[in-house]
Amino acid sequence: MPLMRAIGVIRKSRGERWSREEFEELLRSAGYEILAIVEQVREEHPRYNIGPGKLEEVKKLVKELKPDKVIFANRLTPSQAYNLWKELRVDIIDKWQLVLEIFEKRAHSKEAKLQVELANLQYELPLVKEAIRRIKMGDRAGFKGMGEYQVHQYLKHIKYRMGRIKGELEKIRAEREIRRKKREEEGFVLIALAGYTNAGKSTLLNALTGEDIEAKNQMFTTLDTTTRRFKVKGKMLLVTDTVGFIDGLPPFIVEAFHSTLEEIVKADIIILVLDASEPWKEIRRKLFASLNVLRELKALDRPMIVALNKVDLISDEDAKEKELLVRETIDGRANTVGVARISAKLNQLEELYNLIEVALSRLPKFQTFEIRVKDPSKLGKVLSMVHSMGDLLEVEYSEETKIKAYIQTGLIRELTKLGVSLKRIS
Ligand SMILES: Nc1nc2c(ncn2[C@@H]2O[C@H](COP(=O)(O)OP(=O)(O)OP(=O)(O)O)[C@@H](O)[C@H]2O)c(=O)[nH]1
Ligand SMILES: [Mg+2]
User: Fold this and answer.
1) 345 known member of a binding site
2) Is residue 182 situated within a structural domain?
3) Same domain for 159 and 53?
4) Cα of 394 to ligand 2 centre, how many Å?
5) 325 and 251, same structural domain?
6) Phi and psi angles of residue 180, each rounded to the nearest 5 degrees, phi first
7) Which of 102, 197, 198, 218 gets mutated to test ligand 1 (max ligand atoms within 8 A of its CB)?
8) 2: which DSSP letter?
9) Where in the sequence is the domain holding 100, given as residue range(s)?
10) What's this protein's family per the entry (predicted)?
11) Domain check: are 89 and 163 in the same one?
């Protein structure tokens, strides 16, 4: 397939933190050949977002280079998008539609596809309403080549599809809820991997579990949620990998991906993965972006471990310095358990395992019990269950074996089924 050709436009307000590299990376990830990037530092112009002078420059470039699209790094209001389209007569999209185009390419599961479509429709709805408003005011330009009648039909279609998709997502969500309940009853502790896109979340899940899910050096490789079992020092836990974050993830995407992101909200522990190989300025920007999403999800109260990943790419001193900076930055902003320096790629995870142990000890899901086993034939089974779900503290062998253990409360049911008696000590 020939590459789509695009002109990129970036408008920066004074003092705004923006990453041109990231915008270019997004354009490439979405499959565009970048014909030109136009930059401007000025406050937002209400009509065109960029200033009228810049608009003339873009117009000339459009005539000369004939791009398939002009892509803005800024969020455009529906009326700006409409005005720009009228002036330039070429497809106009902004950063968020660009992100959605990437999502569209990467969506594999039915749920991910529906979520992407919903986000797209949610984005288009105000644009179409704006076009209708203009048409009513006597504007003859139409909307993307559609006349008045077609635009009205299109609006109806959007509303109908949104209703249908929400219904279907609700069903999928209910199924997910059932699976989650079952997991909870089983008592497994759930750990969610969160973090900026390309930080190494999927690589980490693979390293923890021996899985082989796709991990690539590109943005938004993962859209689907994967949950797998793994063991830390003998304890069975669950870990979930899901969609990555990006700076200023807008509410309509968070909303569309709600049920996917909910996996993070429902987790007992969050591992926030950061790419330590980048300059501190970038790490800091992505750390704040991630904390913002977690705040929006109301997940900041969850015990959080920061995994400073890809330390194999930097020196020890650099890693230590960045660890310190992360500690300082995050202090008081989240319920942090600690910062671990890791390499998911090289399976260097010792510090992370230690912090997971610390985090587990703070969870109400773990408690100390006295377990009495009368039937010796059950003893082996009980001991192996205790080992996989907690720590064995003491065993007193006599006619009736007494075991003191620190276990996940989900084990209570399983043990009771075996006919042993349990008493909570702490
Ligand atoms: N050198 C090095 N590279 C790593 C490490 N962990 C991940 N990577 C690389 O970083 C890139 C991104 O890794 P992924 O695991 O796909 O990242 P992700 O966070 O799942 O990304 P999204 O799914 O896009 O959100 C890949 O090229 C990985 O091979 C690491 O510890 N060291
Ligand atoms: Mg991934």
Assistant:
1) yes
2) no
3) no
4) 41
5) yes
6) -65, -40
7) 198
8) P
9) 4-106
10) Belongs to the TRAFAC class OBG-HflX-like GTPase superfamily. HflX GTPase family.
11) no
DSSP strand pairing (366-373 vs 401-408): antiparallel
The reply to whether 151 and 197 lie within a common domain is no
Please report the sign of the dihedral spanned by the C-alpha atoms of residue 145, residue 133, residue 46, residue 127: negative
Say if 351 falls within a structural domain. yes
Helix (H, G, I), strand (E, B) or coil at 77: coil
In a domain, 25, yes or no: yes
Q: How far, in Å, is the centroid of ligand 2 from the Cα of 195?
A: 10
Residue nearest to atom 6 of ligand 1 (CA): 200
**Which residues fall inside 5 Å of ion ligand 2, going by CB?**
201-202, 221-222
- Looking at the structure, do residues 78 and 164 belong to the same domain, yes or no? no
Asked whether residue 270 is domain-assigned, the answer is yes
* CATH code assigned at 13: 3.40.50.11060
Helices (H), 137-246: 148-186, 201-209
Domain count, the chain: 4
Q: What is the CA radius of gyration of the chain?
A: 26
Q: Which of 22, 105, 197, 203 to mutate to test the pocket of ligand 1 (most atoms within 8 A of CB)?
A: 203
Asked if residues 30 and 102 have their Cβ atoms less than 8 Å apart, the reply is yes
Q: Flag whether 99 is marked binding.
A: no
Spell out the per-residue pLDDT of the chain, length 426, in tens: 668 999 999 998 887 766 888 899 999 989 999 999 999 999 999 999 999 999 999 999 999 999 999 999 998 998 999 899 989 999 999 998 999 998 888 888 898 899 999 999 998 899 899 888 888 888 777 777 778 888 899 999 999 999 999 999 999 989 888 888 887 777 788 999 999 999 999 999 999 999 999 999 888 888 888 889 998 877 889 999 989 998 877 777 877 787 778 889 889 999 999 999 999 999 999 999 999 999 988 999 999 999 999 999 999 999 999 999 999 999 889 999 999 999 999 999 999 999 999 998 888 778 889 999 988 889 999 998 888 888 888 999 888 899 999 888 778 888 888 888 888 887
Residue 223 shares a structural domain with residue 293: yes
Sign, CA dihedral 257-110-267-410, equals: positive
Distance 104 CA to ligand 2 centre (A): 15
